[in-house]
Amino acid sequence: MATATPGHDSAHGHDEIDDHNYTSLGLDNVKLGFWCFLGSECFFFGSLIGTYMSYRGKSLTGPYPVEVFSVHVTSISTFLLLMSSVTMVLAVAAAKQNNVRPAQLWILATAALGTCFVSFQGYEFTHFYEHNLTLQGNLFGSSFFTLTGFHGAHVTIGVIWLLTLTFWLQKGWITGDKGTIVEVAGLYWHFVDIVWIVIFTLVYLMEYT
Amino acid sequence: MSSIAAPHADAHVESHGEADTLMGWLTTVDHKRIGKLYLYTSLTFFVLGGIEALFIRVQLMMPNMHFVSAQTYNELFTMHATTMVFLAIMPMSAAFFNYVIPLQIGARDVVFPRLNAFSYWVYLFGGLFINSSFFFNAFPDGGWFGYANLTSGKYSPGFSISFWAIGLLILGVSSMAAGVNFITTILNMRAPGMTMFRVPVFTWMSLVVQFLVVLSFPMVTVGLILLVFDRNYGTNFYVPETGGDPLLWQHLFWLFGHPEVYILILPAMGLVSEILPTFARKPLFGAPFVIFSGILIGFIGFGVWSHHMFTVGLGPVADSAFASSTMLISIPTAVKIFNWLATMWGGKIRFTTANLYAISFVAMFTLGGLSGVMHASPPIDLQHQDSYFVVAHFHYVLVGGSILGLFAGMYFYWPKMFGYCLDETLGKIGWAVMLFGFNLTFFPMHFLGVQGMPRRYYTYDAGVGLELWNLVATIGAFTLATGILIALINFITSGRRATQRAGADPWDAATLEWSIASPPDHYNFAKLPRVHSDRPLWDEKHEGGPAVSQAKIAGPGPHHVPMPPPSYWPIIAAGFLIMIFTGFLLGKGHYDAGTGSVVFDHAAFIRQVVVTGIGALGFFATVLKWFGEDDSHR
Q1: What's the rounded Cα separation, in Å, for the pair A96 and A180?
Q2: Looking at the domain covering B22-633, what would its CATH class be?
Q3: Between chain A's N and C termini, which has fewer beta carbons within 10 Å?
Q4: Which DSSP string do the residues of B440-468 spell out, in sequence order?
Q5: DSSP string of B157-192?
Q6: Average pLDDT, chain B
Q7: Residue A3 and residue B549: Cβ atoms within 8 Å?
Q8: How far apart, in whole angstroms, are the C-alpha atoms of residue A85 and residue A194?
Q9: What was the pLDDT predicted at B597?
């Protein structure tokens, strides 16, 4: 079977197709892999949201959603989170043009807005707890805190990711394509944002219809 | 500092291969080594699960036996199933994914080699985690499906269900990481010219499996998280007293559980689709149909889960819908069976051990499929549910299907993996004993089921007509075990007895993995092959097609092939991940009979926060090191 293919005998199997960036689909590997991961995350949040919706109105005891919700406060935090997607887009755009400094600033802005959102959620959770809505107290509390808690945890991880990313950009530790690396963080951030739009609509707004 | 983007980028442009030392294996990122690790580990767990099965069969050998207690019996059938599904068959398939996929698509490794190593270590540690419960007197005992609310803090106050639930969460991480890795690999690492319809059928079936894994595991993950929350913090998800619905668990579990069935069988179908054509010296009959059937099975597989729940009373509409979709899924399955038969038809069939296993796969899987179609009908299923008829059915598809298919794959790919063929004589004896023992064990279970013997009961009375077939099944189980033992002896001793090397292409096969040395060098392909058809090697040998086969690079390294360097971060990250989950084990609340609920235990919670916190910090630091790994010093 010793038929060697042309060019192999040089013991140096390189040619244009051995290029590091060759992929069959022409898509970046990390980006493609990350899309798969996000597909999985859709089913993860889908199951959590499905759980919440199937238990909606099934609590045997109070407090009930409208007794504790303050849709004005949550609207503000929702607005902040949505705005963070805008700053994230700007960060990706700057990184793609290799403008590291503006990219860093926009990433920091995104992280700051994300932190605001998590802080609002912290305030909301404390407020609810004071109104006797607990993780254990009733079915609404269990499903509400679990769903929004997992979302909040995702935002928190996103903030840590963004801060690490800025720090690495600052140190010049990223030698790969900066645009792609920032973009992947952006994919995650937008995904978490979109999930919140669904949660906000189904969990909060639907209580007022 | 390497980019996080491309595993091959910036790596040292040379290949010495990895050191054959303990450290070399612990830090390996070579898909071939990881495949072998999966193989060894899954075979070990397979033996463990088999021993548990033998205990079950001894207990049921005669009426009113007291070989094991009822509690031990519960633990045995729970861990037999959990071990076989999650620790034996799935990772045995993963062994083939790892070893074969990159070779079949003409790649030098998977796309994320370190993530691949991470998947393996998480699997190993997760398997040890679940089984370590044995030493804490907390062997899981709630069935492999862990139905709520038997698993609640109220009815299972000990640690056994915690070990089980958290262990499955850990294994889910492993499967998820592997799934993302293989999807990206198959879609993006194909050799130039290998369009999707030139991708070999095994790789195609694997691709479908990875999508099933990536999309179905998150649902059981949520189910398990809710369970752990119920048990740890006193939430109410599966607690009927507070309005929770145990049925939610069944939905979340079977939304995963049914795709899981196809996760277990499709890799074997893929292997058989490689083996039958090779030994019939014909192309796979209607290969695109086989591929599309696999895709269709994957799709419909998500829409049949409630056929596991006909007896809970979902109503006639739901029952009818799920009955229809279940009957529908038998069509693409049957398409495959007819394609395999048509492949063999008129071929010059060589009855090697691999081919015998593959042919018996088709026969046994068909039998399992026939009893499966019966269950699709709700009125019949109401009679079969929880009887030995169901046990017979799924063992026909899992042992007669998955295991026979995987053993076929082992005999087929062994020369590629180890450079020598397994002993054919011993192989055929093992195959015959295994097939005979398998049928002797499981065929009588059809009769037992129809006679009304329920699953999971630890014993039965004399004089109700169950003695004969139970005795036969037990004799069959030991025969089956003997057959497997013969195969294992063959695996272990063939290397010593083999008198000659296998050569690159021992079976006169058609696809790229046979175009390079056996076992392949560290870098697989000295030069990425150009693919011009779906059977590139066959075309080169028999049809005058362009050359694809290639020799090793002569002489010692470095060979200037860009390969990822070994890394110890995957195993460390896996260790910290286990720590994170161990925290959740320690955080179990306690059930208070006075209030009738699980009480949030502050001391336990603090223990959890400390252990999980340290684990999470360690994991975070490891991930930073991982992504920032400087390749230049290794």
Answers
A1: 7
A2: mainly alpha
A3: C
A4: HHHHHHHHHHHTTPBTT-S---TTSS-HH
A5: -SSHHHHHHHHHHHHHHHHHHHHHHHHHHHHH-PPT
A6: 92
A7: yes
A8: 10
A9: 86
Q: How far apart are CA B190 and CA B262, in angstroms?
A: 24
Q: How far apart are CA B598 and CA B590, in angstroms?
A: 5
Q: Which residues 433-492 of B are in CB contact (within 8 Å) with A? A: none
Closest CA to B609 of B583, B579, B578: B583
Spell out, as residue ranges, where chain A has pLDDT lower than 70.
Answer: 1-21
A37: contact with B, CB 8 A cutoff? yes
CA B554 – CA A207 distance, rounded (Å): 72
Task: Answer yes or no: is pLDDT of B77 > 90.
Answer: yes
The pLDDT assigned to B308 comes to: 93
Q: How far is B585 from chain A (nearest CA, A)?
A: 18
Burial class (CB in 10 A: 0-12, 13-18, 19+), A208: exposed
Question: Tens digits of per-residue pLDDT, A145-158?
Answer: 999 999 999 999 99
Interfacial A residues in 122-181 facing B (CB < 8 Å):
135-136, 138-139, 142-143, 146, 160, 164, 168, 173-177, 180-181
Angstrom distance (rounded) from CA A164 to CA A170: 10
User: Tokens standing for B464?
Assistant: 């109700």
Give residues 546 to 565 of B whose Cβ lies within 8 Å of A. 547-551, 553-555, 559-562
Residues B256, B302: contact at Cβ < 8 Å?
no
What is the complex's ipTM, to 2 decimals?
A: 0.93
Domain range A27-51+71-208, CATH class: mainly alpha
SS3 A56: coil
Given this model, what pLDDT does residue B527 score? 86
With CA atoms as reference, report the closest residue to B304 among B397, B378, B205: B378
List the domain boundaries for chain B. Answer: 22-633
Q: Where are the domains of chain A?
A: 27-51+71-208
Is a pLDDT exceeding 50 seen at residue B634? no
**Mean of the pLDDT values across residues B522-548?**
90
Which pLDDT belongs to residue A197?
A: 97
pTM: 0.93
Among all chains, which residue has been given the structure tokens 């769903």? A147
Residue B112 has pLDDT above 80, yes or no: yes
Rounded alpha-carbon distances, angstroms, from residue B40 to B34, B36, B102: 10, 6, 20
B44 touches chain A (CB under 8 A): no
Nearest chain A residue to B184 by CA: give it: A33
User: Would the pLDDT of B352 be above 60?
Assistant: yes
